[in-house]
Amino acid sequence: TPTGRRSPRPDAAQGLLTGLQAVDAALQGKLWNFLHAKVYRRSLFQNFSFPQDLVRYEDLVVNSIAYSYSRKVRIVSQPVYIYHVQAQSLTWSQEPSMQFVQGTLEHIRAGLNPEVASQVKQRSWNTLRTFLGVLTISGGLFAGSPKPSVDRIVRYVREELSFRVLVDAAVAAPHIGLSGMLIKVVPGLYARLYRWHVRRTFDMGAEKHES
Q: Is the separation of the CB atoms in 171 and 29 below 8 Å?
């Protein structure tokens, strides 16, 4: 964190997974979907290319598709990468857009190995839709984005994600599903709790969030 504190963050899923199991784990938020700290077989990239039109969540897209073309995926718990959290990074400073949600979903659905795509659990898709809404809102809150930009994604969660979808997401990833429910019912409270969470977890200064 900016204060120099280190916090190990192992993947929730561990061990040897099939490609399908890895896809489900990724879409359910049980794997860290950054490109760093991974080793890929070069041959995987014969099946797809890096999405050039996405400015957010492209790591999630690439990894989900790569898993779908993999026979096996091994997850190790040993830390192999040091990630420095900075308030000025693109991850924390982009203005939220529905393209972050819709574009990511479209790329994943279109890019998955057809032999695997039909077997992906509906719970995985429900969790992914919820995750994209929650994370996009959270990024906008952190960046101090204009209220109308954040409110557009809030409306997506409140109007397009039913309680059934959010409950399903909560079964797979409680923090994601419960965050979605809070946004759906009392978005103002979620905003306050999220700002508190970022300050506490990432040692970010309060002044950025209060502006």
A: no
Residue 18 phi/psi, 5-degree rounding, is -75, 165
What is the model's pTM?
A: 0.89
Compute the C-alpha angle 75/180/21, nearest 5°.
25
Tell me the C-alpha distance between 113 and 135, whole Å: 26
d(CA 58, CA 55) in angstroms, rounded, equals 7
Per-residue pLDDT of the chain (211 residues; tens, 9 = 90+): 888 889 888 999 999 999 999 999 999 999 998 898 899 999 999 999 889 888 889 999 999 999 999 999 999 988 889 988 876 665 556 788 999 999 999 999 999 999 999 999 999 999 999 999 999 999 898 888 899 999 999 999 999 999 999 999 999 999 999 999 999 999 999 999 988 888 888 887 544 433 3
Per-residue DSSP letters for 46-58? GS----SS-SSSH
